[in-house]
Amino acid sequence: MSTPPRPPCLQAAMDRAAWYLPRVSFFESADILNDEESTTDLKKCQKKPRVLGRSSSYLSSWPAYTPSLFKLKPCAQPEWKRYIIKSQDLPTSKPRYLEMLENHLRTELQSLDLTKGRTQELRLQPYREVFEFFMDEFKTYKPLLASIKREYEATIAHLREKIYSLESVNAYLVTASDQCTQKILTFQEQEKVEIAQLQQERIRLLQIIDQMKEKRSSLEVQVSKLRKSVAEENLHYLNERDARKLLLLDLNEMYRLKEETKLSKVQDEKGEDPVMLMLALKTARRDLTKAQIELNTMRANYGDVVPRRDLESQEKKYNELSEQMTVLQEDFKDLQEEYNTMLEVHKQVAEERDQFYNELLNVQRNCTPRPEWDKCAEVISGGPERWNALSEGKTSDQLVDVLLEDLGAMMLRERETFIALGKSDKIPIFLRYDGQVRNKKLSKKEVVSILREIWREKTLTDQQKGTRSSLPDFFLTYFQRKYGDIIAFDWTYTTFEIMKLYRSNEAMSMFFNILTGNLDEGVYHNHLQHLSTLLKELTNVDVGNTGQLTSEQFIIALKAAFPFKTDEQIQELVEAAGYRPETPEEFILYRLLFLEDEEGRAEPLVVKMKDQYINEKQAYLHDLRAELRSMEVRPDDLRAAFYIADPGLPDQTLESYITYVFQTSGEQLDSAASLPVETVMQKLSSLDLRRQGNLPGEARGMAEESSIVI
Questions:
Q1: How far apart, in whole angstroms, are the C-alpha atoms of residue 637 and residue 567?
Q2: Please, what are the averages of pLDDT over each run of 10 residues along the chain (710 residues)?
Q3: 527-535 long-range contacts, CB within 8 A, separation 24+
Q4: Of the candidates 393, 387, 402, 505, which has an alpha carbon nearest to the alpha carbon of residue 446?
Q5: What is the domain partition of the chain in residue ranges?
Q6: What integer pLDDT is reported at residue 369 of this predicted model?
Q7: What pLDDT is attached to residue 200?
Q8: By 3-state DSSP, what share of the chain in percent is helix, strand and coil, each rounded to 5?
Q9: H-helix or E-strand containing 56?
Q10: What does each C-alpha distance from 566 to 347, 527, 569, 612, 698 come to in angstroms?
Q11: What are phi and psi of 57, to 5 degrees?
Q12: Which of 129, 153, 166, 135 is nearest to 54 (CA)?
């Protein structure tokens, strides 16, 4: 049956619908198709049946008519008005061809076996067939729909290749993680064995010490006994000596009496003269008296003398006992010092115990009990698994930040609009807007991606212009150029609120501080420059371009990139890179140390570099604060403090610091007004301060060493 001719106004409306259809979404196109089909049904137009897959049905006429299609521009002809009046009372039904497509899609989806792998590709095939049926039926839009399909197929193929490549990387990472876990467990077992051996060795040494102490006590007892026995032996020898002398005197007296008796007998026999005998007796007695005097003198002079053999024996014993006594005195002195040290330590520990006990009482009296953080797992989105991942290894303060960020993100997602702050000059330029702005409800990953794109475009723009532009101005300009002047404030407000919420995210926190003026933009660029320098040095050391280095090569590259870092800081960076002394044969994959995830989280090496920079900056500011003793600071005072705290600082850099703090040019520094020391320190803390020479203590030590050498 041929289709009846359409009124001119109806034909014009259908032409407008055909022009408008490619510019609307898929669901709006379906509504327009439904409207035009109703219009054709009103005209009693029918088409021949068409076969679709395994099922056949009649194809509804298309496009149909619906009065809403022509509300854009009403028709003024009377004949068209009659068609509209007749069609308003008829209900609008779904097109038959659309029902056939939906039934075919539902049947194909139900017949799929989704228990196998790649279920998403199996589900995608019926949708492809329906889309091809749709293109074949509507030939007018087939080229456009075919180009759309080709682009989607190319994108899906590209993403599938990326997924395949990432699956291999994921498998490698899983294998590496398992190997690292096995190695860690092995190291832990080895450490347990070593700890047990060391504990046994300690117990053995303690036993040896106890044995030595017992031996020393026994030796002291033996020494006391030997001294007592020596005294007794000495007294015994003295008694023996006196007894021997007495016996000799008695023996001499007996010999003398015997001789006198013999002499008297001889004289009696010979008949000698008694006078001569008396003279001889007197002479003998005088000689005896003289001998007795000499004997007494000898006794008086040499009565206490002992034999050399006994003297040498006693001296030998004395030397041995003296050496033992010296050793015992040294041991006693060491024990006395250890005892005094233990007394002091015990006293300090007792004081700390009392102090901690008092603090504990104050805390128990004033503070609330520690919260049960596991209760948050029942409230937070994601359940216990997500809460365990978020709370792992965090303190109570950090857990509060995590909870606030999650709750704040939930509240931000629920808000539809933000109230603008107005157009005052005190408001940042990227927030100057009156009225309400829409909440774009961006995720953390999307915001980090936007911030990376802003940094990238700003760096290119600044390189082309040769000057560094203001980040707040470029922040607004970026969204205006991309979305328009009015919608740009929707993006600026949404991005600003999300950055203000996720302050624990390093990428958002640094961008937020620079955007609000709390931090100089040079901090970001210098950090990238240091990472680039480190990567360049690592690449230079990697002669074979293998992507892996030994610990010695890694340390050489670190010292070349950061000549002012101490050995302790270099060792911290090496450990952050994944090096373990237990496995020195393993290589360091240095190219993986500079990666970031989708939320801006960096690797431990980059985090450690930022921590060291913060610590060095705080120490630098502390040295400057110690040199600024007055409450009011002038430019000359700040310059002198920099000369003392950092003698190697270039003059150009020093002048840039001073002009930034006092907000004036170099010619007007002499007439600049003094500032409070706290204001000066606050402005210096926003700069990218890096020490350009040795520490003050190190410089003084080097000067002292040079003077000693001279």
A1: 33
A2: 41 40 37 40 35 40 39 38 44 76 86 72 84 86 87 88 85 88 91 92 92 91 90 88 87 84 68 74 89 85 77 89 92 91 91 87 70 68 70 70 74 83 88 88 88 91 88 90 88 88 83 87 87 89 85 87 87 83 74 82 85 87 83 83 84 83 74 81 83 55 34
A3: 527/609, 527/610, 527/613, 530/561, 530/562, 530/609, 531/594, 531/606, 531/609, 533/561, 534/558, 534/561, 534/562, 535/590, 535/594
A4: 505
A5: 8-137, 181-272, 415-519, 571-709
A6: 61
A7: 92
A8: 75, 5, 25
A9: strand 55-58
A10: 36, 19, 5, 11, 11
A11: -160, 175
A12: 129
pLDDT of residue 203: 92
- Evaluate whether 123 touches 112 at the Cβ level (below 8 Å): yes
- Could you give the count of Cα atoms lying within 13 Å of 175 in the half-sphere of its Cβ? 6
Close Cβ partners of 198 (under 8 Å, ≥ 6 residues apart)? none
Cβ atoms of residues 628 and 677 within 8 Å: yes
Given a contact cutoff of 8 angstroms between Cβ atoms, the answer to whether 639 and 652 are in contact is no
Q: Of 486, 508, 487, which is closest to residue 497 (Cα–Cα)?
A: 508
pLDDT score recorded for residue 694: 57
Contacts of 591 (CB under 8 A, 6+ apart): 547
H-type alpha helices, 68-141: 78-87, 96-110, 119-137
Cα distances (Å, whole numbers) of residue 32 to 13, 38, 39, 103, 176:
11, 10, 11, 21, 56
- Taking a C-beta distance cutoff of 8 angstroms, is the pair 519, 513 a contact? yes
Pairing relation of β-strands 55-58 and 49-52? antiparallel
Residue 85's alpha-carbon distances to 42, 46, 64, 218, 317, in angstroms, are 11, 22, 16, 128, 140
Q: Which residue has the tokens 């007294």?
A: 235
Residue with tokens 């995590």: 402
The reply to whether omega before 647 is within 30° of 0 (cis) is no
Q: Give the Cα separation of 538 and 536 in Å (integer).
A: 5
Residue 557, classified by CB atoms within 10 Å of its CB into exposed (0-12), middle (13-18) or buried (19+), is buried
Contact between 542 and 533 (Cβ < 8 Å): no
Matching residue, tokens 């289709």: 3
Secondary structure of 370-402 in HEC code, one letter for each residue: CCCHHHHHHCCCCHHHHHHHHHCCCCHHHHHHH
Per-residue pLDDT at 5 = 44
245 C-beta neighbours (distance < 10 Å), count: 13
Q: Is the pTM of this model over 0.90?
A: no
Q: Are 99 and 50 in contact (CB under 8 A)?
A: no
Q: Tally Cβ neighbours within 10 Å of residue 590.
A: 23
